[in-house]
Prior knowledge:
By secondary structure, the chain is an all-alpha fold. It has helices at residues 9-27, 47-54, 59-73, 81-108, 120-137, 139-152, 166-174, 195-213, 218-244, 260-267, 277-295, 305-311, 313-330, 359-386, 391-395, and strands at residues 115-117, 179-181, 187-189.
Amino acid sequence: MQNNPVRLHHIDLLRGLIIIFMIIDHAMVYCSDYFVNDPMDIPGTDPKIFFSRFISHFCAPLFIFLAGLSASLTENRFSNPHDFAKNLMLRGLVLILLEFTIISWSWSFNPTFPMLYAQVIWGIGWGFLFLGLLRLVGIKCVFIIGTMIVLGHNLLDNIRFQDNTWMHYLWSVLHQKNVLALPFDFKIRTTYPVLPIIGLMCVAYMAGRYYASQQVSQQFVKKADKQALVTGILCLLSYAILRGFNLYGDAGQFTAQDSAVLTLMSFFNPTKYPLSLQFMLLTVGTGLILLFCFKQLKATFSEGFLQVLGKTSMFSYIAHLYLLHIISWLLIPVLGFQWSDMTYGETLIGLPEGFGLSYGATYIFAFTVVLLTTLLAKQYIPWKYANKHNSIARYI
């Protein structure tokens, strides 16, 4: 096994930016003005709420894309494809376990809360699991299956199965967001169906392999960077055409509204659950352009808080959820409520009915958590490097 490769600062910078977007989005759960459906109602959603939600659209697909990209860049650490695939599958299983334990508990502070939410970490876990399996079959299989899923999964949008059948359960995991009954009165909401995530993970892995193959000289590196920029632009142009003319790639339709703002909102509202082709073109295309822009910055710039969050993305993801929840509980008496007003055990977060921050206060709340998460992450980095062979440090 070879030594770890040098980290690419532009990938860490983009991860750090995603963490900030995610903290803002999750903080909005505590905002009294915040209400969205999936997809967001247009009309019916305040534009400022819509665009606060919109920035979070980039989080899940770019986390998935960067996970696949980074996996390919670390493959040379392993002596053979079998060991690499085994590591991916183990990592995937650990992430699925984390989703339903430490991460789930961060929202409820209640291990017995009867609803489980299969969200982005679960999706990335399944992505790693299937990428590992496909890698055992061969590189061509990863490329073919990934491309077919990304480009073709929207052909399956209208498939439905009878409730409470095994196909309904399977399809809800793969391609249809649903709430499913589990034993012992538990339920699970398949927020992120995994089929498009598996496809995106495979495509990202192949992109990473191509990028790694171009590291033979500075000339080839610059060529790969420019190709990433061009690919990003082509993704956005494809999105504009597919979305603007409602051609393909999304279960929802773009429609002209009564105002320019509402029309713009409709245009930038592709389906997130499951990730549609249009959704991936918009978000990953933007991400590729940002990677090119961040690459132009000197590595010394990346020593700031963005890279701290990017280097510790899994730790920061978990830490910010607990910080948001703890601080919101501490705010209960500050906002004029009593501890006895809490709905702990009855609702997911357990806050009193009517609890909520103003829109402006929510952003202060969010950036306070960004600061605290960064401070904790700075303390975590030296511990992680000192314990890099520790099983926990490898996965968080």
